[in-house]
Amino acid sequence: MEVANFYKHVIRKYRHTYSLELMHKNIDEAIDSMFQIEQLLLRRKPTLSRWQHDGWYMANAGKWYYAYTINDDTVTIEDACHEQNMH
Fold first, then answer.
1. Which residue, among 18, 71, 56, has the nearest Cα to 80 in the 3D structure?
2. How many CB atoms lie within 10 A of CB 36?
3. Are 65 and 59 in contact (CB under 8 A)?
4. Is the dihedral of CA 16, 17, 19, 23 positive or negative?
5. Of 41, 72, 73, whose CA–CA distance to 58 is shortest?
6. 4: how many CB neighbours lie within 10 A of its CB?
7. Residue 8 half-sphere exposure toward CB, CA atoms < 13 A
8. In what helix (H) or strand (E) does residue 75 lie, and over which residues does it extend?
9. What is the pLDDT of residues 39-80, one digit of tens each?
C-alpha cells in the first residue's frame, strides 16, 4: 500500500524526530479518509496522466490523493499519492 510505504520511508529518514506512534496515526488517518470517497470527498478529474490513462477518478483528502474506480456500489482504491509526489 502506497500510504504505508510513504510513511515507512519518512520514519527511516527522520528516525530521530518522527515516532512510530505518529507513523501509525498518519497511516490510520489516511486509511480513514479513503472511506469518505464518494460520500464527503468530491470526485475529480485526475491530474496525473497515468491515472487519466487508466480512466480512474480522483479524490483528495488532506495531503493524500486517491485514484479509484467504481463498480456498482463498490469503490476500489487503485492508487494513492502524497501531495509531495503529485507531479
1. 56
2. 12
3. yes
4. negative
5. 41
6. 15
7. 5
8. strand 74-82
9. 999 999 999 999 999 999 999 999 999 999 999 999 999 999
Please check whether residue 34 is in contact with residue 1, taking contact to mean a CB–CB distance below 8 angstroms.
Answer: no
- The grid cell for 16 is 530521530
User: At 72, which amino acid appears?
Assistant: D
> In 29-73, where do the E strands start and end?
57-61, 64-71
> How many Å apart are CA 5 and CA 35, to the nearest integer?
19
Q: What pLDDT digit, counting tens, does each position of 12-29 carry? A: 999 999 999 999 999 999
C-alpha torsion sign, points 56, 60, 66, 72: negative
Q: Would you state the cell numbers that stand for residue 80, as one nine-digit string?
A: 494513492
∠ Cα 3 23 79 (to 5°): 5
Q: Cell 460520500 identifies what position?
A: 39
